[in-house]
Amino acid sequence: MDKQKVDESQYIQQHLSNERTFLAWLRTGIAVVGIGFLAVTLHLNYGAQVSAITDTISLLMMGFSLIIGIAFLFTGVFSYFIKRKEINEETFRSSTAIIVFAAVTVSILILMLGAYFMLVLQT
């Protein structure tokens, strides 16, 4: 199959927006991992003596935030290249699944953090 050379300069604004979106995914992934590290650090410094349940929740938050942070990075990379191709082919469609994925995973992390703090504050 012969690929036609696409002049990307005709879509400069769209490609620059796509790059900014990728960087936002990258920042989001770093922030999610940071939330996990923060939770574990707070637990080790202040709540390690509370209960075995809080120990488990803090470790789950750390593991979940690492996995989700990496997933956000890969999602951003894959999304960038898919959108780049769609922009060049003029077939761009906005994402719904990626938005739902981000909202659900961050919500789960926030709920875990809330559950942890509720358990810590009860003792």
From TrEMBL:
Q: How does it sit in the membrane?
A: Multi-pass membrane protein
> Which residues does UniProt assign to the signal peptide?
none
Q: Report the InterPro entries cross-referenced here.
A: DUF202, IM_YidH-like
**Primary residence:** membrane
Keyword Transmembrane helix included in the entry's annotation: yes
What are the record keywords, sorted?
Cell membrane, Membrane, Transmembrane, Transmembrane helix
- TM spans (from-to): 21-44, 56-82, 94-119
UniProt keyword Calcium present: no
Q: Which Pfam families match?
A: DUF202
**Location of the protein in the cell:** Cell membrane
Where would I find the DUF202 domain in this sequence? Answer: 14-83
Protein name (Swiss-Prot/TrEMBL): DUF202 domain-containing protein
